[in-house]
Specification:
Homeodomain-like_sf, alpha/beta, nucleic acid binding, 5-stranded mixed sheet, elongated, Integrase catalytic domain-containing protein, 370 residues, Nucleotidyltransferase, domain 5
Length: 370
């Protein structure tokens, strides 16, 4: 700003030096012309806007004019006093004080949102208590205000807004899904495979392979499934199946004796049994579409080997890239040596860590036997 003011003063000085060579008559005529131009501009412009440099120059020049001529200038004494008051206010102004309590940190807001979404039955006071146990002291009214801003209703309404995804995740440990898949052999013979999947762990049980599936055969496979599950059979309360005619009343009765309710899917709606349908696509893309199947025994052996790989050696997106048989509380450590196990003759590969032996000290002598 100071540089701009100095440039303006220098230009004005040059203009004044140029006026020294003019006569008084020329100056008077120029003053009359300028006064007329100012009068014309005043009729057109209501209130001109001036910068602080214009105000400084006009204020300095106005002090050199007689008192009678000052009344007809743009800069009047009242304007000068107003400018001075504005400068005083600008000098002594203070930043506005922040009223009220400081805002909540973003991590606390994110934690409140997480607690409210993961626990639909928790009210404001319940969330407040959980935050206090985690070391955060937040008022219940603040929690209510945060949830309102996020568009989350109170606890009773959040329970009513439960989605199908949340409902299925809540009951996944009690759900089973079963279905048939077909495989065409190298001799153009169609074989049928019956399997059951545990929805929570994604563990697959390949129960049987045949070319002529019947209702009695499927019912016997249901009995075999309950025997394989053992003590865990009572944990499953529902089984999802389609409306295939091979699922007879005997099949439903076998599972009902275990306390498992059979839920048929709506007609022509494979998405209702999406977990089983997705496994069929996976096993075809990774196994059966890449092999030539000779017969029932060949297909049974291939699927048994693939089921072991699927349950113990394959990462799943829905399980945080773990296998169904992996322990959830075990964190694998970084290893230097990695081994490979071929599955189905090298069609698939499994990798595992090889424990490294401690280095042997060459100076240490082996102990002699007694």
């Amino acid at each position: 700003m100071a540089l701009r003011l100095l440039c303006s003063i220098f230009c004005r000085m040059l203009g004044w030096l140029a006026l020294l060579g003019r006569s008084s008559a020329v100056k008077n005529v120029e003053i009359l012309a300028l006064r007329h131009e100012v009068a014309v501009l005043r009729r057109q412009v209501g209130r001109p806007r001036m910068s602080w440099v214009d105000r400084a120059v006009l204020s300095t020049l106005a002090r050199q004019l007689p008192s009678m001529l000052r009344r007809h200038r743009l800069v009047t004494p009242g304007t000068l006093l107003a400018w001075h008051r504005r400068l005083v206010r600008w000098k002594w102004r203070q930043p506005p004080a922040e009223l009220g309590r400081p805002p909540l940190p973003e991590e606390i807001v994110a934690l409140i949102r997480r607690l409210a979404r993961e626990n639909p039955t928790w009210g404001y006071v319940r969330i407040q208590g959980e935050l206090r146990r985690l070391g955060h002291r937040v008022a219940a009214a603040t929690i209510r205000r945060v949830l309102r801003r996020l568009g989350l209703p109170p606890a009773p309404q959040r329970v009513g807004q439960q989605s199908w995804r949340t409902f299925l995740q809540t009951h996944a440990h009690t759900l089973l899904a079963c279905d048939f898949m077909h495989v065409d052999t190298v001799f153009l013979r169609r074989l049928y495979v019956f399997f059951v999947m545990e929805i929570k762990t994604r563990r697959v049980h390949v129960l049987g392979v045949t070319a002529h599936p019947t209702g009695e055969w499927v019912a016997q496979l249901a009995r075999n499934l309950l025997m394989d599950l053992g003590d865990r059979a009572g944990d499953f309360r529902f089984l999802i199946r389609d409306r295939d005619a091979k699922f007879t009343t005997v099949f439903d009765a076998v599972l009902a004796g275990n306390g498992t309710r059979v839920i048929p899917t709506p007609p022509q709606s494979p998405r209702s049994n999406a977990f089983a349908e997705r496994w069929i696509r996976t096993v075809r893309a990774e196994c059966t579409d890449r092999l030539l199947i000779a017969g029932e025994r060949h297909l049974s052996a291939v699927l048994d080997e693939y089921a072991k790989h699927y349950n113990a050696g394959r990462a799943h997106r829905s399980l945080d890239l773990r296998a169904p048989d992996d322990a959830l509380n075990v964190i694998p450590m970084t290893v230097a040596a990695v081994g490979r196990r071929r599955v189905l003759g090298g069609l698939l590969n499994e990798y595992h860590a090889i424990p490294t032996r401690p280095p042997v000290d060459p100076t240490e002598r082996p102990s002699s036997a007694a």
